[in-house]
Amino acid sequence: MKDIYIADLTTFDEGKLFDGFFLLLSKQQRTTKTNKPYICLMMCDKTGQLEGRVWEPGDPRIAKDIDRGDVVKARGCVSRFDDRVQMKVDQIRKALPNEVDKTDLMPSTTYDVDGLWKQLTGFIESMTNPHLKGLLNAMLADQGLAQAYREAPAAKQLHHAWLGGLLEHVVSLLNLADRVVPNYPILDRDLVLTGVILHDIGKVRELSWDIGFEYTVEGTLLGHIQMGMALVEKTIEGLPGFPDRLKTLVLHMVLSHHGKLEFGSPKLPMIPEALVLNFLDDLDAKMQAVAGEFDKCAREGKPGDEMTGKVWALDQRQLLNTRLWLQGESK
Amino acid sequence: MKDIYIADLTTFDEGKLFDGFFLLLSKQQRTTKTNKPYICLMMCDKTGQLEGRVWEPGDPRIAKDIDRGDVVKARGCVSRFDDRVQMKVDQIRKALPNEVDKTDLMPSTTYDVDGLWKQLTGFIESMTNPHLKGLLNAMLADQGLAQAYREAPAAKQLHHAWLGGLLEHVVSLLNLADRVVPNYPILDRDLVLTGVILHDIGKVRELSWDIGFEYTVEGTLLGHIQMGMALVEKTIEGLPGFPDRLKTLVLHMVLSHHGKLEFGSPKLPMIPEALVLNFLDDLDAKMQAVAGEFDKCAREGKPGDEMTGKVWALDQRQLLNTRLWLQGESK
Amino acid sequence: MKDIYIADLTTFDEGKLFDGFFLLLSKQQRTTKTNKPYICLMMCDKTGQLEGRVWEPGDPRIAKDIDRGDVVKARGCVSRFDDRVQMKVDQIRKALPNEVDKTDLMPSTTYDVDGLWKQLTGFIESMTNPHLKGLLNAMLADQGLAQAYREAPAAKQLHHAWLGGLLEHVVSLLNLADRVVPNYPILDRDLVLTGVILHDIGKVRELSWDIGFEYTVEGTLLGHIQMGMALVEKTIEGLPGFPDRLKTLVLHMVLSHHGKLEFGSPKLPMIPEALVLNFLDDLDAKMQAVAGEFDKCAREGKPGDEMTGKVWALDQRQLLNTRLWLQGESK
Amino acid sequence: MKDIYIADLTTFDEGKLFDGFFLLLSKQQRTTKTNKPYICLMMCDKTGQLEGRVWEPGDPRIAKDIDRGDVVKARGCVSRFDDRVQMKVDQIRKALPNEVDKTDLMPSTTYDVDGLWKQLTGFIESMTNPHLKGLLNAMLADQGLAQAYREAPAAKQLHHAWLGGLLEHVVSLLNLADRVVPNYPILDRDLVLTGVILHDIGKVRELSWDIGFEYTVEGTLLGHIQMGMALVEKTIEGLPGFPDRLKTLVLHMVLSHHGKLEFGSPKLPMIPEALVLNFLDDLDAKMQAVAGEFDKCAREGKPGDEMTGKVWALDQRQLLNTRLWLQGESK
Amino acid sequence: MKDIYIADLTTFDEGKLFDGFFLLLSKQQRTTKTNKPYICLMMCDKTGQLEGRVWEPGDPRIAKDIDRGDVVKARGCVSRFDDRVQMKVDQIRKALPNEVDKTDLMPSTTYDVDGLWKQLTGFIESMTNPHLKGLLNAMLADQGLAQAYREAPAAKQLHHAWLGGLLEHVVSLLNLADRVVPNYPILDRDLVLTGVILHDIGKVRELSWDIGFEYTVEGTLLGHIQMGMALVEKTIEGLPGFPDRLKTLVLHMVLSHHGKLEFGSPKLPMIPEALVLNFLDDLDAKMQAVAGEFDKCAREGKPGDEMTGKVWALDQRQLLNTRLWLQGESK
Amino acid sequence: MKDIYIADLTTFDEGKLFDGFFLLLSKQQRTTKTNKPYICLMMCDKTGQLEGRVWEPGDPRIAKDIDRGDVVKARGCVSRFDDRVQMKVDQIRKALPNEVDKTDLMPSTTYDVDGLWKQLTGFIESMTNPHLKGLLNAMLADQGLAQAYREAPAAKQLHHAWLGGLLEHVVSLLNLADRVVPNYPILDRDLVLTGVILHDIGKVRELSWDIGFEYTVEGTLLGHIQMGMALVEKTIEGLPGFPDRLKTLVLHMVLSHHGKLEFGSPKLPMIPEALVLNFLDDLDAKMQAVAGEFDKCAREGKPGDEMTGKVWALDQRQLLNTRLWLQGESK
Known about the structure:
The structure is a homohexamer.
Chain A: H1 6-9, E1 17-31, E2 37-45, E3 48-54, E4 71-81, E5 84-94, H2 113-125, H3 130-141, H4 143-151, H5 165-180, H6 189-198, H7 203-206, E6 207-208, E7 214-215, H8 217-237, H9 244-256, H10 272-299, E8 310-311, E9 317-318, H11 322-330
Parallel strand pairs in A: 3-5
Antiparallel strand pairs in A: 1-2, 1-4, 2-3, 4-5, 6-7, 8-9
Helix pairs in contact in A: 2-5, 5-6, 5-10, 6-9, 6-10, 8-9, 9-10
């Protein structure tokens, strides 16, 4: 485990020494105005990212072989200029395998991934339609895919933008869907749950999360909806006897889950299960944005009787923390 | 109870006699091309509406004193022209009080109103915030308001456009909200339930349902959101000690429940409870539209492997009945 | 070949006899106001569609076994009411196999299909990239797919809504693209041509053209873009060594060819070839709509110095026939 | 009266001493990179706002009891860094009551408030409808409300964002309306004037102007339209015999005065008086924006033959000063 | 003067004889179902338009030489079918010159055109800028243009769609502008008045009003804004010494008077005079639509306590007649 | 020819001396914080623009008579602060006539202007319609207009924003149009070519390019579409016998070439030639933006397997360089 995190460094005074492990996001050669070369490094861990500068690139303690994507061990001191904090790096080398836990180097879910996975498979177990159950089991039987599903963030930025975020989002939605489905007898529970589990599965291809969170070029050109449909379609082709119409409905749920053409779904939800999936997905993402904003205000010590900042995921709306505001009155 | 309904008449052959009770929606004097006067009547009951014509207005069996809004007893025969059906009315008079049950004359909920009311008051009982509970009880203690709440349709057309429709919609939403709230710990359950019960209460003023369903002029000029807020605000003023901030939040939920400026809410939901109210209200209305469309297709004998007609409440989208379509394959 | 076409019938006087072959689009049992049963038939051929009525369903000359989708031989006389023309059908039976050419029964391209196909394959021959050439040849080697490609209309209504319309539209686009490509050195000609040939291939699944032109349920739920991508993806999987990146680009061209999210392309064109494909596809469809409108005006005898009617495919714009209008002046 | 204004300070050279009265908008404890504590103060007066820094918080000449909202007397010197000007504060204490005129501390109208008020009451006197006159007089008889009406800005930023701005805007509109009404005989003058006087009255609750101009939380959640309607409605309830329909029309004018759903009016103007109110309110705001931009250009010495900067209130449009541009030619 | 108007005919009983003058809008040869030829005529006068049918085209009393655009004298009787009224024409011939006043044959202004013209020239007289005065006088000195200005409708349908409508609209706007201008000292009165007089002058080319009101082909292709600018520009070229900048401003006012790109003004108003012109033009058109709708309701006997029908010029809004509705209460 | 370009200076180290010719875009007197006067100069040449500062304005080597728009000779050294580069100017004077080539001082086309002009006139020669040919020759016979056509940029920023850009854009479009026209027999080639040559001709008035590229005030108020139409209309008036209808069509092509009301064309293309002009103009501009972005990435050394930056002219879309990306795979 790491001892020093970037969030700690940003509170250090000028000149204070540090020694820690980071993920190297980028490395650039530059020269000063007086033509002296130096190296500019962008490093991150699970608490954030920070720029570092190597002023003596020729120093033997500065490893030559480090590159974008490496986990590194760096030593130096904190430098402050105006309100900006930087690391002045005096020594740096590649970390040894196992010297540091990779989950310390990028933001990741605060839930236990095994626990989430158990919930997911529990929901699959509870289904009764053999074809849908078979489809889901076949997909998760692909070790690479299952591992990616456990690791993938749900987004580059915005909601659930952390390792394990996709799984966390899906499990939250499964629980919500399981509550809502009994209210509407026309809904086919197995189909709704299948839609929940598969709707974002293309994100395991659309995003890469080895070195920070990035869209792959393929992901940019095709999008996770198309990539997810291709994954599902290919798996179904390996399942003899999977009914054609059921396949169409599953694909339709993935295709339509953004709910509007301008949000990237080329077809609107046309079956009740797809309609519910779109609503719940949207509600869950927004409630997550609300809760996240309230947490952020709490961390920043904002008083409870003020509106929050503008929230991107809610059309730049400001929010009010009901509980804190009402408490302020009763005092 | 009525014996003959308008829905029956429309299946009658030319010339078949009938004898029944109807609500008179309008009455107009007209003349034929050859200048002969006749009377054109629009009549309805809970199964629909139909035009009737009195060709002998001077006949003593045609009561002179009938007018828009009267319940009438009419006798005559069915007349068909092209695909249009009309009533040829030979006798007509005002109905006696109690000769017919008013709920037979306009479409009304298929649920038991007392049962719905019991659910509603049960939810109020389950609340813990004394101010909100007090507010709801004070509003329902107004006999006129409570009676209107039991009777009002939820809309002139579209979703829940029948007597008792408002109550039916609210109770459906209460059950849905009660399921969803536990999924999000930041939600104040009492506030969500209060919002559900009050969000559409202005409809008891916006609409009139004595003679068909109509918007009142006041309702057209001010809308149910504003009318509902005025009702709530006035009631709160009679409740000493009702906290100012809590009042603001209740009003905000009513004000923002349509969710978008272009849908008539001048403020967007800015507290989590208002956000959830808007989502669930929208979801419930849409699921009701889906179920209603499926029922309509079943009544019309449409085959299960076709898309439905275009559904107004879902942006003219066509839908597919999942269950029927899948059954069609397994056969 | 047929002797009498629906377009001819609509000019007949009341009571004139006819005898011809038609495609039966629908058949409904009905009763008159006086409860007499009759049969309502919708029939079409390549010149249009017309309603027919059988007033004596029990007549032995009225075959019982005819149904939606059958080619029939009908005899009767023309009936006119107001401005509506109908067929009064006295005899009807299924046509014998080969009694009539199916292409006479639905609108179809005025071009020679074999000639169009030769142009198409000629363009494929002219390509140099072995992978793209291989992909196209593999797709057209599937006999069912090739046959469907030759037959499919390009739309249910609007542009190229006739048998062979897809092929006609593609060949027109190939010629246009072949002219434009040399103007822009950054374009990869083979990629553009591949995009042209494959962009609408999903229409062979989205539409059915056995009995009139209809969207299939699968087509309504998934759309031709998605269906086309699935076809392409599956074919590529059977081609060993097809480069991954090239596959992504081909799929991107199909996915993005509608050019805007609100037109059903979930991704905008992001490579120059996709941009050009979207422009030329749009231009060709609009030029076809212009030419079609001018033809229609000529058929209807509209004077050349007036604006045309409103053209749906051009946002309800009215057009002016340059040539005719200028001729009007010089006279 | 104050001697030194913030607008003066911004022109001072580095190190020049000052001594003046300001309103304290915020006060924050901070530390330097070397962990030395200092205080950051935001201060304003009617000419603008400026940041001040106290580098020796322990100095006995730095009062401990000053806080957000206090009027303070501060002494120090001007500090310039890059293009930013700051106050280096050496002494600071609360101002004594009456040591300074509060209207010097925030931007306020350049008109005489008593004169504006007299015009307003003069217009009320000129009205003939006793109910509307009674309503307006009843509202202004509330001393708190009348005082707030005299002080309130019309906005936080944008048009009339200064003390007395609401009153100034209303009186300008009254004069404009009084000119326009005679042109349209269908208009009820008293109703138009009532609408002008009440349309923005909710701003006395929506905004706070004690310490700068801010939206209250209640104002953010409900908006001035709703708050104004509640004020009007409550006053009318205290007026026996006020006609119901007249009340509905007055409320409708307030409700609809923004003219579009997307501008926050949930109902469009549906009576001619409301239509005119919306037009004139919009015109007056825009003409004020034009005049304001021309003044700003004059102050900044912009030449008269150039377009102005982009004007926010006119959709980022650039304007041209007709008079100056024409003068430029005749020279 | 005419004795019988089309508005009268529509109230006639079946078979009643008439004899009157009309303008022939169109003439079409047709045949009945039994192949008998007849002629269908569309005729109008200032009160409306009505279809006539000549069942005996060979009758010598039916003139052969009548054609679209002729003023005709027709005799026959009224025929009613369902709710449709037609003229059965037994005799028809061209009217003699001066047998009828052309202003009786198309809807025209209810104002005295000479009086309106006097107001217009009076406003020009009141101006002080010699260049603008010279421009206006030069334009009106063109006899053809002046005559067209007096006759032209302001639109094909919608507001001021009658002979003299353009002049009536301009004079109404002049009076309105004259009231509003003094409220804003930055406005140049002469420029505003010039803009009012010239803004719609292109309509004398865009529309034709010889035979009903129609857009010319040139008007459809170029629009009245462009055509008006060409007229103004050409006139200015004949005025030596007209300042370039002033010309630009006058053209800018014409160009921008629709106020938005999507309303056909390619530039937004960028000088205060253009801004005011756009507002007042829009306000006047809408107030005219309101007054027109109230008149229509009065003619149709609609009760005063109802909303009007949907008004096209006000985005399909329903309106309420303030005066009538309030009267309804006080009764 | 110049020796030193601004693009060179930005790579210089601190303090390095230079000596060069520049165009003076602006000159402002300022004072330092300590009240010392200095001069701030903005200078450009064809490779970019850079700020210079004169710290000793009284030095006799600093010419007093230089002003905005002058070509100057400046001597000094490079100064770097953070990442910003400036010129410290020690000597400056007006350049002598012919000391420097003006085309070195602003960005200009990389094509040979005479060659482009020859292509343009060649296309005119190839036309057969004598009126259109006469119109084009008459316009280019105006020496001032022809010279402006050769020099004008096609835009202030964005596509073809360099001297000669208009001509370059038109010639590119002529070649494209010449390829596309034969594909559509309904097109009148001469009309299309005329539209291409004249569509943007108003830019010679809308823009000024003496001192940088700016919109003229007239250009801002009227736009190049209107200015171009006025030029064309005036020329046609000097051509006896030019057919009216042909004139209308030419004007319509200029007027409608932006294709949408919201893009500033008050009429949509309504003849096929105008439709094609709008499409090809748009396609050519976008292909130019794509090629330009790829060039920029190449200059900046961006790797070929990444998406480009966001491209303004393509709705902020990111692009991918097909060729480079595919090459990356085959390696």
